[in-house]
Write a structure and sequence with these properties.
homodimer, alpha+beta, Uridine Diphospho-n-acetylenolpyruvylglucosamine Reductase, domain 2, Uridine Diphospho-n-acetylenolpyruvylglucosamine Reductase, domain 3, Alpha-Beta Plaits, 8-stranded antiparallel β-sheet, 5-stranded antiparallel β-sheet, 14 helices
């Protein structure tokens, strides 16, 4: 309900209701909050950016948006790759950047309570001081926030053994689409009191609520890892090695694929002395304790060799092993230096990894597009990276066509259109194809139920049932 | 919409639409489908019991119920302990007992696809033949079904290390409250395409949909376990040992508490030669591979001794260790031989376990009620078992009062009213107290969205927003 006696502009009302300095309206500044890192995803310009410091302030923001019928787009660090945090024209962008408190780290209960703006790496560092470990480790961990990780159900390198963000979220405090501040979930190890609204919020990309606090499960610090590296003549050979590791019954703590394009781009940027002789490098790790870890590493080595590795070795040098994983994490920003990078995020059954990588190669050739590959290969979660020369519109059109084809091939192989980056804007068509009309309608029903006024990140993931999407 | 041209009775219409033998209406027979194992939970009598064999037949049942406005109560083996499967008068009970196919066990993708009526133990046995392991292991594993386990998000003994049913459900096929047959979730290791309707259905106790197929994640077969047993003079001492294990950074593969009452009841029934000298027995296990497992077992032993165990030992006899865990699993049916048993299912923070066990003792004394204790102690998931002499109404009233007080104390200690048995009927008041009005309203909003005609297991968990609950 619009308050006709009050100020008409949401920014004015936010300024009136919140402490000084919370609201930004200078277009030079607000423009930098207008989009995430998804290449080519459309975005509008926010009417205001607000940086609340407390849950109550977040509630005020939601209520002002409700009052004015203005869309609210929540963002963390803006490292998303699907456009999920992109502004729509005239919206309020809520940035969680000022909510950075680590409220509790509890070694006995093995949990932490944090505000949404806490950077992933900062939480991991703080946990380590207590002998604890927060596993989810997206490659963006140095910049991305726990709130953003929860909103997208972020994955990472260790997911192949330890699962994704949702597996670590015990409870949430959030503001609903009707402006209520609520707590869901728990602090106990188990609990089945009511529907699992916690899991429902995780991965909902700001469309069902605005997260103000996260309670995460922690693990004890783990053993140092053993690293195995293998060079392969083709992505398909590397894919066969991945399938062999799964068949051997090993659960590696990481199993990452990086191709020559990525290694070359990282080396050109960071001068790490990386070998670019191999077409593809596979990096396997085991953190099983004691002799079990040795055995797993040896088994992976044998799998790499059996799949035709041109070179394979157990790394004895911890520094060298770290450099290889650092190269993996830097692959995306390194490639971005060459031109716009459109990031794919498909996930296919493990058995389909070689076939899918082969199809990506074929698509690259067919559309004359440079496609580099990084992959959480052990999960079947592939990130083909489509690189175009800056300013080349025709190359962009070709890459766009390749992007669509990769999604279709992933679905044809029984995969999903997004393994960990989220639907955002870039995967909305893919989502429709994947879910089909009945499940899409169920998703919309849930959206309508939790955000009845349709102010929370409209147009992302699914639209309301009232709108065409 | 009622089909005025057709038969007026749902049983007649079900008989007309389904193959012969699917529908039971003999009250002698249908009465045995009227309730689960929750003592004192109210139940009505079904108008018909139907045992469909396919997902399409399930859809037919849902559509007939929609057409006639008749409530539909789904049940697996009926081993539930909260009344979640209890019939309401005139309802249709859908039993999944005839849907017992294990459709797929896939070692490479580490998943299985099963019909809902598959018994937990049967799935575990089938997986073991492929070197695989389905972890969730409720004490009812020999009887309870995967469908029921999913509907209640069942826990079990190994949850302390391996998580609960929800952690293993990758995807579901189910019939919605509007009679659509849909698939949610995936077969891939990761995926964030749309809201997590899979987790929403898990633990929803048949109130949001009727599950027709479950895709579960599997693990590789694990190492043989090391077992540590400790005798304690009080539940509080045992509780301190549990806290010490958590503080020592050990993640046991089981950490179970059984008191003297349970051991005596099992021994009187099964003549297993169990010692009943100890007031309380703690059973710890480690399945960490190789020397790590030895170290964990030794650490647990030291924790037991440090907390004042009167006797503690690492079991070297696998048969003896199995007998102790068998006694744990048989505790509930053994006590039932003595009289009606009202089963609690609270879960408290680990640090609160000694305090909570002490309060249970005090409540037992205050209400002159025999309360035996079994507990997934490492999770803080306690099952006080309130035992009353058959036919003693006043004892029953005292036990009922104790039951309510235990729930209140669990909430006061930051716990939950149900760790793994579900809300059903017995925990509806507790649920209200735990969630509070705003979150309860959110739960109802979700219920209304997915079951708009309010035919799915009405009165369980939360009522629709249209009804008082």
């Amino acid at each position: 309900m619009r308050n006709d006696a009050g100020p008409r502009e949401p920014a004015d009302e936010l300024n009136r209701l919140l402490p000084a300095g919370r609201v930004l309206t200078d277009p030079q500044v607000t423009g930098s909050y207008a989009h995430d890192e998804a290449e080519w995803a459309p975005h509008g310009l926010p009417a205001a950016v607000v940086r609340p410091r407390t849950a109550e302030e977040v509630r005020t923001v939601v209520r002002v948006c409700l009052d004015h019928g203005v869309p609210l787009v929540t963002r963390g660090a803006g490292t998303g790759l699907s456009g999920g945090a992109n502004a729509v024209d005239g919206c309020v962008v809520l940035s969680t950047e000022a909510m950075t408190a680590i409220t509790e780290i509890n070694p006995l209960e093995r949990l932490a309570v944090v505000e949404p703006g806490v950077v992933n790496e900062d939480l991991r560092t703080a946990c380590a001081e207590h002998g604890l470990w927060y596993p989810p480790d997206p490659a963006s961990a140095r910049w991305s926030t726990i709130g953003g990780n929860v909103a997208t159900n972020a994955g990472g390198l260790c997911c192949v053994k330890y699962g994704v963000t949702r597996d670590y979220v015990l409870g949430l405090q959030f503001v609903t689409g009707t402006g209520e501040l609520v707590r869901v979930g728990r602090r106990t190890a188990k609990g089945v009191a009511g529907y699992d609204l916690t899991s429902l919020l995780v991965g909902s990309e700001g469309t069902l609520g605005v997260i103000t606090e996260v309670t995460v499960r922690l693990r004890p610090r783990r053993e140092p890892e053993h690293t195995v590296a293998g060079h392969f003549a083709s992505v398909v050979d590397a894919g066969r090695a991945v399938a062999a590791v799964a068949e051997a019954g090993v659960t590696p703590s990481a199993l990452e694929l990086i191709d020559r394009h990525c290694l070359a781009a990282v080396d050109a940027w960071k001068h790490m002395g990386l070998s670019t002789e191999a077409e593809v490098v596979l990096l396997g790790r085991s953190d099983a304790p004691g002799p079990a870890g040795e055995l797993e590493a040896d088994t992976m080595l044998a799998c790499f060799e059996g799949a035709g590795a041109t070179y394979a070795v157990r790394s004895t040098d911890q520094h060298e092993a770290e450099a290889l994983f650092e190269a993996r994490r830097l692959a995306y920003p390194a490639l971005e230096r060459l031109g716009p990078v459109l990031t794919e995020d498909i996930c296919v059954p493990k058995a389909a990894v070689p076939e899918m990588l082969g199809r990506v190669d074929a698509i690259a050739a067919r559309h004359d597009t440079l496609i580099a590959n990084i992959a959480h290969a052990g999960d079947g979660n592939l990130h083909p990276l489509l690189i175009t020369p800056p300013g080349d519109e025709r190359a962009r059109d070709r890459a766009q066509a390749a992007f669509v084809e990769i999604i279709a091939e992933a679905l044809a192989l029984g995969g999903t259109v997004t393994g960990e980056h989220g639907v955002g804007l870039l995967k909305r068509d893919g989502l429709r194809d994947e879910l089909g009309p009945a499940v899409l309608a169920l998703n919309r029903t849930v959206k309508d139920a939790l955000d009845p006024m349709h102010i929370l990140n409209p147009g992302k993931v699914v639209s309301s049932s009232r709108k065409d999407s």
